[in-house]
Amino acid sequence: MAMAYKQKLRRSKQRKAPPPKEIPPLCPPTPQRASFVEQKKSVDLVDRTDRPAIRFVRVEDRLIKVPEGLFAQMSGRIRDSLGFTSATGGGSTPERPIFLRGHTSDQFEQLLRAYNSYPSLDMRTMTLDNILTIGELAVGYEMRILVEWLRPCLHILVLDHNTPLRTAGSRVYQRMLWLAMCLRSWKIYTSIVDKWISRLYWGQLPPIPALLFADAHGIAHLLSHACYVYLVDVQKLLTTGKNINENGALSPRQEMYIKSGYLSLKTTWSKLQRNALEFRSSGCVLHAQCVSVWRQRWKAFANAPCSTSDVDVLKRLSFMEDSLREDVVLDRCMAPSCKALALGAIKRRRNEMALELHHHFDL
Ligand SMILES: [Zn+2]
User: Fold this and answer.
1) Relative to the CA of 36, which of 61, 158, 201, 338 has its CA 20 to 30 Å away?
2) Distance 324 CA to ligand 1 centre (A)
3) Could you read off the pLDDT of 275-290 as tens digits, one per residue?
4) Gap from CA of 339 to ligand 1 centroid (Å)
5) Contact at 8 Å (CB) between 174 and 166?
6) Domains of the chain: which residue ranges?
7) Residues whose beta carbons lie less than 5 angstroms from ion ligand 1
8) Do β-strands 62-67 and 54-59 pair in parallel, antiparallel, or remain unpaired?
9) Alpha helix positions (H), 241-286
10) 351: CA distance to ligand 1 center in Å?
11) pTM above the 0.70 mark?
């Protein structure tokens, strides 16, 4: 009887197509019984084939049956930390489940469904939250196959013309940026940071979530711009000595960033009010006159009443560039080529400042 069973099993194994060479033996998920048979010596087969190749996990208050193949996709480090590798250990019975923490049972079920659907997992049929949840858990459990599935998904989500980041809230930005960092996808990372900064300046997203996330993850460029936008929001409070951290969102160190930025940017603008930006000569014959009238008009516009705060130096520089470009006195008294160079100096100074904002906040 046992011999007949073995022959049947052998024929069954012969009919099975060999796994594709380019796919590692652990992945994609293979039928559990076949996976189990391949790992055991033939002498064990009769005794063990009836045993379901599952493990029991507990997530929150739910006991969930999980194919062993899902654990096989995890890195060895994660399997060891979960106590999976011991044959008699965690998860082999409902009484001794593997405890999974750091996510909800619903989120884990999304991962489980993704595992069961792969390689037919289609992002077009999934919600954004669904894709990000699967990505986060796959990264957390170091499931290489699903992480590699995530990579092009994230690429499309971030770089597509109709990216959800055009309207998404801060939480989606945090989740996507975290995934981009884990995947070391620098093109995606840079694009998310740039989009986030733009929406901060457009007033579409609040600066505090960006500030906290950037500070926690050492993203200086995002942090400095979030500090800048927050500073512009609260500068009136600082001017009157009021509390800028009423709801306690900022740590004392982060509050110091804002206060340092306030003093530094006020000083910067004060210097700019007194001293016009210098520019190269275009080789005109009356360049002394160009310089003289430029300095005069600069001071006039820099000291004119303005609704923009003094600490918002980036906006003040944009205002200066626009005003001086339209100024009829400059048109009359300055060589056009020198005027173009002078306006170019403002733009350059503004761009340099935007890249080096972190100095103002002592980051
Ligand atoms: Zn000139």
Assistant:
1) 61
2) 15
3) 999 998 888 988 999 9
4) 8
5) no
6) 234-363
7) 284, 287, 290, 335, 338
8) antiparallel
9) 252-274
10) 24
11) yes
